[in-house]
Amino acid sequence: MTDTSQLQGDILAQIAAAASPDALEAVRVATMGKQGRVTLLLKTLGGMSPEERSLAGPAFNGLREAVAAALAAKKAALDEAALNAKLAAERQDMTLPVALPPTGSVHPVSQVMDELAEIFADLGFAVATGPEIEDDWHNFTALNIPEHHPARAMHDTFYIAGQPNKVLRTHTSPVQIRTMMGQKPPIRIIAPGRVYRSDSDATHTPMFHQIEGLVIDKGITLAHLRWTLETFIKAFFEVDDVALRFRPSYFPFTEPSVEVDVGYSSKTGKPAGAGQVDKWLEVLGSGMVHPRVIAACGLDPHEWQGFAFGTGVDRLAMLKYGLTDLRAFFDGDGKWLKHHGFSALDLPSISAGAAL
Ligand code: PHE
Question: What is the CATH number of domain 107-341?
Answer without folding.
Answer: 3.30.930.10
